[in-house]
Structures are given as structure tokens and as C-alpha cells.
Amino acid sequence: MIIKEFSDELFSEVAKFCRLNMELDPVPDFLFREKTFEDEDFNPQTTLVAVEKISQKVLGFIQGVVRNRKDERVGYIKLLCVDKNFRRQGIARTLYKQVESYFQTNNVKTIRVYESFPNYYMPGIDPFYTEAIAFFERMGFKKFNDTSNLVSNLSSNLKPSEEEMTKLKEKGIECFRPTQDQRDEVLNWVEKAFYGWIPEVSRAFKNEPISLFCAKLNGEVVAFSAYEVNNIGTGWFGPMGTDNKLRGLGVGGVLLKLCLYEMYEQGFTKAIIPWVGPIPFYMHYANAKLQRVFWRYEKKME
Fold this sequence. Notes:
Radius of gyration: 21 Å
Number of strands: 12
Number of domains: 2
Order of helices and strands: EHHEEEHEHEHEHHEEEHEHE
Structural class: alpha+beta
Distance between the termini: 29 Å
Oligomer: single chain
Shape: elongated
CATH class of the largest domain: Alpha Beta
């Protein structure tokens, strides 16, 4: 077995390989490109392919990225896949150890699995992939939390009612789709209130139409809701956020519906609501149901 750096000439073969060996996640080419080359932190030194020495058959793939967070540099194992017929032969370990070594020499103190926001595919490990759970625990990772993805069936019924809109107007709250001229105003507010979501909200301004709705109170942005800013083309909703002082007034529910209804009009039949905290909120406003559960793992470097 030899290890190669991932390159464009390997793209089609590796994308197909991942589709064949990730039973729950048949990643199409356009999405695989978004996760790899289109990641702003893509690094060929931490995106590796294991191939059989003579036949050059792909046996495994790993992608690691380093993100600069507010307090530290965090390493992520963004994707990891091994041929289902060649598992438990040290392929994943060899790939992982090479990436971990890079992390160690580049001042990474914490490594997490899959949740590499803003560009990520899964917010953790689906426990269905039991071999992945066992592998990362053997590598010293500890489970520290779990999360879930919800799914909402889209229909015309999700359009906000006149009554809902009127109630917000009576409170002085205006819902709107920002224009390009309002981009800086929106991003300045997001930076203060929801710093980690700046890249995803910025991405919304690149879509046509701009895939973002906001709310204002007294002329100031107080909430936002976005869609199609990660895993683009697959019907992902989010992120969204509302100023703490306005929660419970129905602002988030209306912004959520504005996004989901527009997704319906664009031809999506389902919306994936990922990495969910307030399940009752999404169930109430969008009749969202639990789709998948993910376990979150991290490893502290010595």
C-alpha cells in the first residue's frame, strides 16, 4: 500500500469509491468537490488516498483540515472512508496517523471528527457506522456530546400566514430579504451576535436569489435565517439566529418558514435541518422529524 496526496486526477475515482463505501452517504461528485477542493482550508498534505501498490486500486481516503477558531487552531477529520472489503487491516490507522502528525507539528491542540463547520458534511459520527465509532475510540477520541439532523417535508403550507406577519409588524418587526447593498450591515451584526456563522451567511449572498431572510427592529438587524449555504444542492437549511431579547415572539418561526417555503418553490421536496439544538421549535413550525443522530468526538493533544 502507498499513500498519495489527493489531486484532481484522482477526483472521480475517489468520489466513486466513497459512494460505494459510505452506505448512508452517497456523495455526488458536485458535493464531494464542495467538501474537498472548494473548502477554503483544503490541504493536499492532509487529504490522502491509500492505494494498492500494484493495481493502484483505491483502498482508503481521509481529509483533514485545520480551522482557526477564536481561541485555538482546531484540527478536523472531515472525511474518512475505507474499502468495506479491506477494513481492520490498518489502512485507516495509517491514514489517520499521517494527518495527526501534521496536526501536531502545526500547533493543533484539539481534534474533532466530521463537524468541520462552516464547510462540513456531517456534524459527527452516525452510530450506524459502528466501525468508525470503534476506530476513533481506539485512536484516543472521547465522546463529549451528541446532536441530530431533522427532516421537514416541504409544501405550500409552510408559507407564513398574514396573521403571523401582521403580529410581527405590530411589534415593529420587519422581515425582509437583504440586498447586496445591505450585506455589510447584516454581516456586521452576525459577527457580533453569531460569530461562527459568518462564512455561511456570507455564502448566502452568492446565491441567486440571495438565500437569506432577516428581521429588523427599530432599523437594526435582530435575526436571520439562511439556506443552501452548505452541502449546496441537497436541500440543507440553516444556520439561523435571533437576538436573545426577541426570542419567543415568533420571529424565528416566520424566518424559518420564509426559507422553507422558498425552498419548496425552488423544487426541493425535503429540507434537512442539521446539527439541531431546539427540536421542539422545528417540530412546531415545520413539522420536522428526527432523521439521523450523530455522536460528537474529540481528542486533546498532549
